[in-house]
Design goal:
Layout lengths: L2 H25 L3 H13 L1 H11 L7 H7 L6 H12 L8 H11 L4 E10 H15 L3 E6 L6 H15 L3 E7 L8 H9 L3 E5 L14 E2 L3 E4 L3 E5 L17 E2 L1 E6 L2 H17 L18 E8 L7 H12 L3 E5 L3 E2 L2 H12 L3 E7 L5 H17 L2 E5 L3 E2 L3 E4 L3 E5 L3 E2 H6 E9 L1 H16 L1 E3 L2 H5 L3 H11 L6
Parallel strand pairs: 2-3, 3-4, 5-19, 8-15, 11-13, 12-18, 13-14
Antiparallel strand pairs: 1-9, 1-10, 2-6, 6-7, 7-9, 10-19, 11-16, 14-20, 16-17, 17-19
Subcellular location: Cell membrane
GO molecular function: cardiolipin synthase activity
Pfam families: PLDc_2, PLDc_N
Length: 475
């Protein structure tokens, strides 16, 4: 390679770096991010350019434009659905101090007339999902971040194929990055049986070709628009506790029957349209669940297509509204400074703030990064617990006596800004008592962290923790 060619390549990189730096200054979320990207892109474009085009963006181009034409939450069908909710007295009006901002963030209403079942761990969850699939008469909507062609994955596949052969419409959506290793034979087997199969391809579109930083992290199953499942489980044998590396897999899902099931399918409708360019014909005729507890529920989809950071706003609202109890459970607890500040204020208000996280995760960097935030949490007076009975993967928040959330969002930058997520907000004291009992049991399998646990760690350990924390925005 000649010197002239090397000089041309170097000049080309610096040229791209300069214009990418301008883009970073205009679009980065924070001044600190703008400065960091701009300096890197100008000084070392050979390294910074690939990193910026893969990890540097926090908005998902194309999805927003597509949905403006056919946005489920503003479509005629869903507008009619909301009107029917009102006519049938299926709208719920819990504590408006909390409910009103949550509804505005979600762009979907709290509904009444729901049954909600708390599903603890994989066997309960998939037994319930498989029973629901067996009841399907019209359609089944299935969406998971990770699908594996193992024992559980093949059982799901066989059940979906069986329903498709009965004439039930089956739509199967998976994330192209989360399910990267999913065999073609698995997908072709579903397609051959009449199941509609699409990947949620975040690299779709010219502007997204090199953007690998977004994920569709949602886990949703909807049957006939009358019942739905949301929670932390993906499809793989490890979610049944059959992973040698992480032993017991502790996770939580919920089953919802009633009007809120159709709010959940709004999220699927939008994701399916991006992946397939098909507008699904779904049921938008909400009715109260039979023999139920009349539970209030709201679905909150969030993602990088949001004009404002819906996931961030929602969890900040949870923290700020707490007056007596705030219990947060997350496998990946890597929050922004604003969340630490909000938690500090909650502690000062006298709120019982507890954070439960796994001592060991499936992400090496997160396992160490947790220690940096544990240190900060102890300093502000929050209680922190290491879960020791295997891998804690549930995403649950309990606020006072009135609200509980179960969903797919972790307490980290990826879920707040980069992932497509869905969180269910349940307003019912009886259900929340069940959640509290479940978490009390989890606390009994945990160890409360003390200052001594932090102090006794070596300097090199603390140094590695701080280095790991630097990668927090992309963990």
């Amino acid at each position: 390679m000649t010197l002239e060619l090397l000089a041309f390549i170097a000049l080309f990189f610096h040229f791209l770096g300069f214009f990418s730096a301008i883009k970073a200054i205009m679009e980065s979320r924070t001044p600190q991010g703008s400065v960091a990207w701009a300096l890197g892109l100008v000084a070392i474009p050979y390294l910074a350019l690939p990193a910026y085009w893969i990890f540097g963006r926090n908005k998902f181009h194309g999805f927003v434009k597509l949905l403006r034409a056919n946005h489920a939450r503003s479509s005629d069908a869903v507008q009619e659905y909301t009107q029917v909710l009102r006519e049938r007295n299926l709208l719920m009006f819990p504590d408006q101090r909390i409910a009103l901002p949550i509804e505005k963030i979600a762009k979907l209403p709290f509904t009444s007339g729901n049954n909600v079942d708390l599903l603890i761990d994989g066997r309960q969850t998939f037994d319930s999902i498989f029973a629901g699939i067996a009841r399907a008469e019209k359609y089944i909507l299935v969406q998971f971040y990770i699908v594996k062609a193992d024992g559980l994955g093949n059982e799901l596949k066989d059940r979906l194929i069986s329903k498709a052969r009965e004439g039930v419409e089956v739509c199967f959506l998976y994330d192209e990055i989360g399910s990267l290793g999913l065999a073609d034979e698995y997908l072709s087997g579903l397609s051959a049986a009449g199941v509609k199969v699409y990947a949620f391809n975040t690299t779709k579109g010219r502007a997204n070709r090199f953007q690998l930083n977004f994920r569709n992290h949602r886990k949703i199953v909807v049957v006939d628009g009358v019942e739905a499942w949301v929670g932390g489980h993906n499809v793989g044998d490890e979610y049944l506790g059959q992973s040698a590396g992480l032993r017991h897999w502790r996770d939580t899902h919920i089953r919802i029957a009633g009007p809120a099931a159709q709010s959940i399918q709004v999220s699927f409708y939008e994701d399916w349209y991006w992946a397939s360019n098909e507008l699904l014909e779904l049921e938008w005729n909400p009715v109260a669940a039979e023999g139920g507890r009349n539970v209030g529920a709201l679905a909150l989809p969030s993602g990088p297509e949001d004009t404002f950071e819906a996931c961030t706003l929602f969890f900040m609202e949870c923290i700020q509204s707490a007056r007596e109890r705030l219990w947060i459970v997350s496998p990946y607890f890597v929050p922004d400074e604003q969340f630490i500040t909000a938690l500090h204020l909650a502690v000062l208000r006298g709120v019982d703030v507890r954070i439960m996280i796994p001592r060991k995760t499936d992400n090496f960097l997160v396992t160490y990064t947790h220690w940096a935030y544990v240190d900060q949490l102890l300093q502000i007076g929050a209680k922190v617990y290491w879960y020791d009975k295997g891998f804690l993967h549930q995403k649950v928040v309990l606020v006072d006596e009135g609200y509980a959330t179960v969903g797919t969002a972790n307490f980290d930058n990826r879920s707040f800004r980069l992932n497509f997520e869905i969180t269910m907000v349940i307003a019912n004291e009886d259900f929340n008592s069940e959640v509290a009992s479940m978490l009390e049991n989890d606390f009994s399998n945990s160890v409360q962290v003390t200052d001594e646990d932090i102090i006794k760690k070596s300097f090199l350990f603390h140094l590695f923790v701080r280095v790991a924390q630097l990668t927090a925005p992309i963990q």
